[in-house]
């Protein structure tokens, strides 16, 4: 069956696109550290901040903006009151300043804060004077001083408390910390930057990909089936989409029902090819097996028959795109080492040979392409295509949102609507770079190697069906669980999923959540596609364990 | 898993070959990471980073070396092959090496951005469907770091928006610990 017919027969999966939580969310690190608290004259508060900031610059990698710098008397958590409020000043007289890590030397801090000591008490408590050279946390007052009522102590007393070093993930957590440790601010946007994708971006991308995700994933499965049938690989497939080529939703829903115009934004597909490589002059596994039909190795896992991760679907897709960026000549050495294996791969590569040469052509050209263009047609043909206004608006929006694209488009950008449309896969000269801003749809959860490969390739997002989870996978961040209210229980507001499944006896895989880890330089949005009426029994996680 | 204090000249020789590959990478504008695969005291594959030239962010030295080795040897040879690489394998390569069932990995400096054998993840020893492998860090660590420093004071002309780095100076001092890796520098 030729590619066009296969594409026509792709039936979209039905289901829902669900963000994969980050490991920072599923396994929050509650990181605490000591901090000093000092009681200072409330009228000098702003001077205190200036003095502190100039003497002890903050660590910009840990700005600790979630910790309030001052706490009023009534904001002091119950448990700290006996220690902090025992001096007996009035709330109108003093306020408490927090000095978090990196902690300065206590002596230096006391000297710095000395000018800001509280004023004389308005209603001094005779029993608790603290004059004298007492040490910070042990203000054992000399009994003889009990009578003196004068000026407050010239010493600043430093109290050591414990504060949370990570911003709160939820308002509930912020409240909890504020009531137990120190007043904490919840900022819904900023503090999550490394913890999890900003919610607005996550939901915007999810909304954008949701309408077509089922189709792309169904195509990934069709590619997978082609790979398996050929005997050259396992049944794993990848579809790479350039969201910039996506027609506006209104248009696509009309056209999507028929033909293959729904594939307009696809820049490459690739199937697994792990049995296709010759090693050390020996025939490839597929050649040894002979003939077509699925490889006999598919039913088991023996590492020596598995080729290598560079033959996995994701890695092959990355290489196909790279070969376009490099503008490889046919028959080059690289093409011999990494050949194009499948008909669907060939189809999309050829489609990407067609430069969308002018601003007048958009992504909406493929309706014609589908009918007759098995071979790359001359670009002039497309200049006649009438532009749909909606499409121009779409690109225009996109450019506003991501100005960097303007650079990448190079000098050909004439402005005015859909400017700067180059070929579907831009070459190096045209500003193409790795897999920047592309989305990849996979039939299975990719192995750890491929997960990192997709981050290093700078994909924007990765999507796979939950049924395609693999014990060797690198994206899932938690076991599949029944929905649990995330913020239930004020004590541990973000602890939910792992319960009961993490102990060694039942653990059969790691949950790396590699798509969004704060330690890594590169991050991608990760989504699972949960098919309607899905049952866990059908999961690839319980099937043959291999690296997808 | 530190390298034995009296690191024999064999390890030193192969790591120097890896450093030479890293040096080549630097000369051609690639991130200077180099490696060699050693089977039976012979180099059966060598590689350097090739991501810029190939426009493929997954073309790390380890993959190049394995690809080269597989031109002449079957994959099973990797079971008794050791890797010498100037920088701790990244997460991608650490997983690939496990899938290929490498025997031992010797690396120069740790990789606290991407390291997959101790710095960020420990893919050589984590639960997996493939057997674990042994890792030794810290061989010619300072040489490996200097290669990287010489690279990173340059601007990345391949990036869409290179960061200006005019005011950077080449640092030549070292801290004593290997960040994130299991071992400290051996005396060589």
TrEMBL record, chain A:
Name of this chain's protein:
Uncharacterized protein
The source organism is Aspergillus brunneoviolaceus CBS 621.78
Lineage, top-rank taxon, reads Eukaryota
Automatic annotation (TrEMBL), chain B:
Top-level taxon of origin: Eukaryota
UniProt name for this protein: Cytidine and deoxycytidylate deaminase zinc-binding domain protein
Q: Which species is listed as the source?
A: Aspergillus brunneoviolaceus CBS 621.78
Give the organism's phylogenetic lineage: Eukaryota, Fungi, Dikarya, Ascomycota, Pezizomycotina
């Amino acid at each position: 069956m030729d590619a066009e017919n296969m594409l026509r027969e792709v039936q979209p999966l039905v289901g829902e696109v669900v963000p994969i939580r980050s490991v920072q969310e599923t396994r929050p690190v509650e990181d605490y550290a000591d901090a000093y608290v000092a009681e200072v004259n409330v009228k000098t508060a702003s001077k205190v901040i200036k003095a502190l900031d100039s003497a002890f610059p903050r660590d910009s990698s840990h700005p600790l903006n979630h910790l309030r710098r001052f706490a009023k008397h009534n904001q002091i958590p119950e448990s700290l009151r006996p220690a902090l409020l025992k001096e007996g000043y009035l709330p109108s007289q003093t306020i408490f300043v927090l000095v978090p890590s990196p902690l300065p030397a206590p002596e230096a801090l006391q000297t710095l804060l000395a000018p800001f000591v509280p004023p004389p008490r308005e209603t001094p408590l005779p029993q608790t004077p603290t004059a004298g050279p007492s040490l910070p946390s042990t203000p054992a007052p000399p009994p003889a001083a009990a009578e003196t009522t004068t000026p407050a102590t010239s010493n600043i007393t430093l109290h050591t408390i414990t504060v949370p070093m990570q911003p709160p993930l939820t308002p509930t957590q912020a409240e909890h910390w504020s009531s137990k440790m120190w007043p904490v601010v919840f900022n819904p946007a900023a503090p999550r930057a490394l913890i999890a994708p900003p919610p607005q971006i996550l939901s915007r991308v999810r909304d954008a990909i949701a309408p077509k995700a089922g189709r792309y994933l169904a195509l990934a499965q069709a590619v997978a089936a082609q790979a398996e049938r050929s005997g050259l690989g396992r049944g794993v497939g990848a579809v790479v989409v350039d969201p910039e080529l996506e027609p506006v939703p209104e248009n696509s829903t009309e056209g999507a029902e028929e033909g293959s115009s729904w594939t307009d934004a696809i820049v490459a597909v690739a199937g697994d090819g792990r049995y296709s490589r010759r090693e050390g002059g020996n025939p490839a596994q597929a050649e040894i097996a002979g003939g077509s039909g699925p490889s006999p190795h598919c039913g088991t896992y023996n590492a020596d028959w598995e080729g290598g991760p560079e033959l996995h679907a994701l890695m092959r897709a990355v290489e196909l795109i790279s070969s376009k960026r490099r503008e490889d000549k046919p028959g080059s050495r690289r093409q011999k080492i990494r050949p194009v294996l499948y008909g669907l791969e060939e189809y999309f590569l050829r489609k990407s040979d067609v430069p969308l040469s002018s601003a007048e052509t958009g992504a909406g050209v493929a309706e014609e392409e589908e009918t007759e263009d098995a071979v790359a047609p001359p670009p002039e043909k497309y200049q006649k295509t009438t532009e749909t206004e909606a499409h121009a608006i779409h690109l225009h929006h996109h450019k506003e949102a991501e100005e960097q694209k303007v650079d990448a488009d190079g000098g050909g950008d004439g402005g005015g609507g859909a400017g700067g449309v180059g070929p579907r896969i831009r070459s190096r000269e045209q500003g193409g770079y790795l897999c920047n801003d592309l989305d990849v749809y996979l039939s299975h959860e990719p192995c750890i190697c491929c997960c990192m490969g997709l981050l290093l390739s700078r994909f924007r997002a990765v999507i796979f069906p939950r049924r395609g989870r693999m014990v060797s996978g690198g994206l899932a961040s938690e076991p599949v669980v029944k929905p649990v209210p995330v913020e239930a229980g004020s004590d541990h507001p973000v602890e939910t999923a792992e319960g009961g499944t993490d102990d060694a006896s039942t653990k059969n895989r790691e949950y790396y959540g590699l798509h969004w880890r704060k330690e890594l330089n590169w991050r991608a949005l990760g989504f699972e596609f949960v098919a309607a009426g899905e049952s866990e029994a059908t999961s690839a996680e319980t099937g043959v364990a291999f690296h997808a | 898993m530190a390298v034995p204090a009296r690191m024999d000249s064999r390890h030193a020789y192969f790591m120097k070959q890896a450093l030479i590959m890293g040096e080549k990478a630097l000369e051609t504008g690639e991130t200077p990471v180099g490696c060699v695969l050693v089977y039976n005291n012979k180099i059966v594959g060598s590689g350097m980073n090739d991501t810029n030239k190939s426009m493929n962010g997954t073309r790390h030295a380890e993959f190049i070396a394995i690809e080269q080795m597989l031109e002449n040897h079957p994959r099973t040879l990797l079971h008794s092959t050791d890797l010498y690489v100037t920088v701790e394998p990244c997460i991608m390569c650490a997983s690939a090496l496990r899938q290929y069932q490498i025997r031992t990995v010797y690396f120069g400096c740790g990789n606290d951005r991407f390291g997959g054998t101790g710095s960020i993840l420990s893919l050589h020893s984590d639960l997996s469907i493939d057997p674990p492998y042994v890792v030794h860090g810290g061989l010619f660590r300072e040489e490996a770091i200097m290669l990287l420093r010489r690279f990173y004071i340059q601007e990345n002309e391949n990036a869409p928006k290179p960061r200006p780095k005019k005011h950077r100076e080449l640092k030549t001092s070292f801290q004593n610990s290997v960040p994130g890796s299991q071992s400290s520098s051996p005396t060589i």
